[in-house]
Design goal:
Blueprint lengths: L6 H14 L12 E2 L2 E2 L4 H7 L10 E5 L5 H12 L4 H4 L4 H4 L9 H7 L4 H7 L5 E4 L10 H4 L2 E6 L2 H15 L10 H8 L9 H9 L7 E5 H6 L1 H11 L6 H10 L2 H5 L39 H15 L10
Helix pairs in contact: 13-14
Organism: Patiria miniata
InterPro entries: P-loop_NTPase (IPR027417), Sulfotransferase_dom (IPR000863)
GO molecular function: sulfotransferase activity
Length: 325
């Protein structure tokens, strides 16, 4: 990435893109589809191009449904792949250390810096690469399933995913005609079969069914909250690293929610244009609360009952369960 832009330039360009975003950009139509999966504007073309993306056996991939714990897990993986050298980690923003494979700045903005698509930049990166994606398994580069690099997949209880995505979309919408969407309206859209990146249950179950494959590690956000040190050690061993207790402790401390939230190299707050609440004067944050059970302050009794019924229907017989508290 540094070959094309500095971090400061990237942030400026990203905020130009953010100013162009409207809520309708994340609802079908007119977004493109690939294999029945609705994708953000322009991403359908990228996904088709990814069919020829060259995967490397020493890659480390972090794949998640949006707002399921991506930033947290990618920071753990980046620290591990830097062999616990946190001084080196903090020299580069996470956006540059762990590129978002399918996310591109709009073409007019990329043209300003003569930037190619992100996946073409990733193709130029030296090994070992840590690569992030929100794509459902069937849309990921086909070589992922033949070369079998290490893949960490993180899932989060779907009620908190809905709430986190709701606040994220409010933060992202910087359009002049911004219109606040109620939580009820947002929930209905999130549970539509045509929501962006597909449904959470299809996304989760694709990897849940592959959880016993040796190159795939499935984690849950709730376990990361409960035992971060254990997850850091498990991830390190999965990625082929055998660290001392001291190194594991240092990575764990670096990756606590509180420390990441105040670290400009680990937090996307340093990229986004963040709105300020007119009533409280508080600035929004990409890393908002990072807690389990925030759904309780958003769901009505009826909404919760409907969500419980959906979860029971979609996960019946799979063995997949979640901690909601």
């Amino acid at each position: 990435m540094e070959k094309y832009v500095t971090f400061e330039e990237y942030r400026e360009l990203f905020q130009k893109m953010q100013a162009m975003i409207a809520p309708a950009d994340f609802k079908p139509p007119p977004n493109g589809e690939v294999d029945g999966i609705v994708l953000p504007p322009g991403m359908d073309e990228v996904v088709r191009d990814l069919k020829d993306f060259e995967v490397r056996e020493d890659d480390a991939w972090i794949v998640t449904y949006p707002k399921a714990g991506t930033t947290w897990a990618q920071e753990i993986m980046s620290c591990v792949m830097h062999d616990g050298n946190l001084e080196e980690v903090n020299k580069r923003h996470t956006t540059f250390r762990v590129p978002f494979l399918e996310l591109n700045l709009p073409e007019p903005i990329r043209r300003m810096k003569n930037m190619p698509h992100t996946h073409k930049i990733v193709a130029e990166m030296p090994s070992p690469r840590v690569i992030k994606s929100h794509l459902p398994g069937q849309l990921l580069p086909p070589q992922l399933w033949t070369k079998k690099p290490k893949i960490v997949y993180v899932m989060r209880n779907p009620k908190d995913v809905v709430v986190s995505t709701f606040h994220f979309m409010r933060m992202m919408d910087r359009s002049p005609t911004k219109q606040a969407e109620t939580f009820a309206e947002f929930l209905e859209n999130m549970l539509d079969e045509k929501c962006i990146f597909g449904t959470w249950w299809d996304h989760y179950l694709y990897f849940w069914r592959k959880r016993h494959e040796p190159n795939i590690l499935v984690l849950q956000f709730e376990d990361m909250k409960r035992d971060l040190r254990g997850i850091v050690e498990q991830t390190s061993q999965f990625l082929g690293k055998n660290f001392s207790a001291e190194t594991l402790d240092a990575i764990t401390e670096h990756c606590t929610f509180a420390n990441m939230k105040k670290n400009p190299m680990a937090n996307q707050d340093s990229v986004f244009a963040l709105p300020v609440d007119e009533k409280t004067g508080d600035k929004a944050s990409f890393m908002r609360k990072g807690k389990v059970g925030d759904w309780r302050s958003h769901f009505t009794v009826a909404q919760n009952e409907a969500m419980d019924a959906l979860i029971k229907e979609k996960l019946h017989g799979t063995g997949l369960t979640f901690d909601f508290d």
